[in-house]
Model the fold of this input.
Amino acid sequence: MTTPSGTVGADHSASTAGRSRTRETLVAWSFALPFLLLFGVFMAGPIAAALVTSFTDLRVTDIRNPLSVDFVGLANYLDVLGDARFQKAAANTTVFVLVGVPLTMALGLAAAVGVNQGVVRFRTIFRVGFYLPVVTSIVAIAVVWRLLLGSEAGLVNAILAGFGVDGPGWLSDERYALWSIIFMAAWRNLGFLMVIFLAGLQTIPGDLYEAAEVDGAGRWQRFQRITLPLMRPTLLFGAVITGIGYVQFFEEPFVMTEGGPLNSTLSLALYAYDQFSFGNYGYTASIAFILFIAIAMLTLIQFRLLRPAT
Amino acid sequence: MSTLAPTHGDAPTKNNARGDRGGWWIYILLVIGIILLVGPFIWMVLGSIKTTGELRQVPPTWLPENPTLNNYAELFDRLSFVRYFFNSAIVAIAVTAGNVIFCSMLGYALAKLTFPGKRILFAVVLGTLMVPAIVTFMPLFVLVANLNLVNTHAGLILPFLVGAFGVFLMRQFIGGIPDELLDAARVDGAGEHYIFWRIVMPLCGPAIATLTILTFLGSWNSFLWPLVVANTEDMYTLPVAIALFATGQQETNVALLMAGSVVVILPVLIIFIFLQRYFTQGIAMTGIK
Amino acid sequence: MRSGRRPGAILLALGMIVALAACGRGDDEGGGESAAASQAPEVDTEAASGEVTVWAMGAEGENLEVLADAFMADNPDVTVDVTPVPFDAAHDRIVSAIAGGEGPDVTQIGTTWMGEFATLGGLDPTPANIDASTFFEGAWDTTVVDGTSYGVPWYVETRLLYYRTDLAEEGGVTEAPATWDDLKALAEGIQGAGAEYGINLQPGGTGSWQQYMPFFWQAGGEIMDDAGAFTLDGEPCVEALTFYDSFFEEGLAAPAAGDVPIEGQFANGDVGGFVSGPWMIGIVTDAGADPETWTVAHQPTEEAGTSFVGGSNLGVLSDSDNKEAAWAFIEYLSQPEVQVTWYETINSLPSVQSAWDDEALAGDDLLAAFGEQLDDAKAPPAIATWEEVAAEIDAVIEQVTVGDLSAEDGCAAMQEAASSIGAG
Done:
């Protein structure tokens, strides 16, 4: 069902064109002004400053006289792209995003649909429970997950041992560490997506489902034909937000593995953070803007794929 | 306006009456999911009533051997709890209110009004969401220092009073509201602001609830910014204070940290539990076909 | 495009770029080298007055008021205002404060941060009122940046070998290890007596350089030479790195950080020894280890028996507007009696040598061992880029112990990475 957008509106504005458009513009800016003022000062300003910084060799030792640094053009960007650690971090991050975003979205959507349509009682408990990892401190989460994934004393390996399988070091083996982190991130963030998808599910009128059921459509068909298409704007939003978040994934490797073992869980954001803490501000800025370009491209792709068909 | 009044839960329950057929396996899956998801939280709560010594034990224990409220007592004893809570609350409430109001306004303009530069504006706003926050940290602090806002509530609030995320969320959500609704009001002579406040916002219950929860959570838990902006103890927020007492140069007092984490989570949880019922607010769009 | 903002933004960016091009670095002032660290002229601390804001981290921050009150009783014209700061991100906070000009008068500074803060001009040089020789040499060296001292050691810590004496005896080792061979024999003996791992050493990861460096120093190595160039490779490195790696190669040390805290494993007898600082005394006791079954030992000796010294220093920010009173307070905190009181308050080990003569410290065997080690303890050079160099060393250690990099290649890699980073 597509909302017939704009037909009535277009007719209306056609009649009082010029004056109405100016008025509409003024009104629109009156809505935008508070945001723009704060945004311009506190967000756009610092970002512009950071952009300029990325073209200099600013280091922490320069912060008392930041204007007396050398302008180095694209040198930072080239150094970053050529750095082996950056390339490793980029590879890790790509895997993380390509696997993590669909995984988290699927889990979040399943949770939302399940809670919304599959259960009647205890809904509140389920909603709160699924959202809990999002609000639980990463420190507590890290402690528990280390207990689960520990190679010797971990619960997962204990269970596997019961089946006679010798579990590997989920966090200490460089072949498995990244997958463990991906799974942990999906687990942690599905509640966030569940909340958003629940909001989106509310906009789907119930009688659509009834009508479909009367027509003999099964559960899965109802999901495919009604839920998914109507959820497109929400799914797009979820995908973009999760994508943006995951390209910058930081907390999980920071707390669990510090980027190891052997840089197998080093993320681009963690790499940038390390450089920031060394005081290489110009270099860090260029990493950030490379990240920005990556995120922008990813978002564009997502918009193309999931754009509501109008 | 009665056709637009939200009908609580009518539509969904009709679904579920039928959905329950074959629905018990969903219950099982969800219960397993819940256990996995709630586990760390339970561990955190149990940890907060254990002694530090017990938390160091190998193998780790689940239920506390000598449950104690000492950690909480110590926390409240050493913290000027009321002050830190007050700071956190003021900042989080202000930031949340600012986001809900100002981001919705811009979201409405982007979704439902036409004006030149609209698409570029949206692209720019969305673009800032994609720049990793770490680079803006230093310039932002220098800016705030130059505005003489260090160690003030304003310095804690203003930089985050609006955010790109809220604009994105509200624009998407408001975009889904049928134009006929708004045009009907325009034909009746309603101005845009009236339409926004009296028609659009009430329909945005779920989105506003979502934005409130997420913004409040982000602000309440924020650590790094309050840490550098608050120069004196009386401006500290709760997470800063807890890190102060629980983390040391070489060791972490895990028990205190657990207790502190529980204390920090509670307000967010309460707000979530209170707001999550709005997710079932059925918008009676069915009245308009 | 219709939006009028775009050309404006471009102009602004261009303007900034032009302005930046007009600026640029001036010539570097040559760094002077001097045998003994130079200090600033004496400061008149007798006439101290006014307000002094102090930042201190963690437990120090909470308890410093006790000493501040005593100081204020002696100096009624001065008000000392202590703000406790969390350790997490304290570094970022101090850097921001210096950048924004919003810092305190006195601040506690981690020993490895001195190089950075001094090089960026944030710290005031130590006045001659304060006598360098009263402090442990290794600790004092952490305050010296480019030949000048920029602060005062406040409290110190050093690393000793903790080991299970009962398991060692079972394994045939009755004396504390004095040489590298003894250390190896100790680990083997303990493992023979049934422990899973004879010793715990960090296999790379953040901070592993603090466990590796002592061996490097013991083999006669130096991180930097007098000319300011890195000397991380060479014989001492290969020797030390091979020795360090051998524990992992021979299965004497766990190849990955354990899931559970080391104190638990130590108390259980799963691990026979580890290297750490004085804070572990309380933690190990807390974990249930019987005091009869373990002790601490001096680092083994090859060419020297050197350990790592860390801790915290105190410094005065160059932007401070009350430097006399600030230094007066620091002078007060450096008095031996006050250092002992401070130890009794929160168990921080004094940086002043004569404070260790006090019964409170001399009478405790375990602590006395730490005191003895402090006579032979070194710290890394106080350069602005140390954290970055240390991270590269950590990475190489990981590649050698967990990966399959050879010790020779590892040493070469360390040297190359350090040289390309430079000393800032």
In short: Residues 5 and 11 of chain C are 10 Å apart (CA to CA).
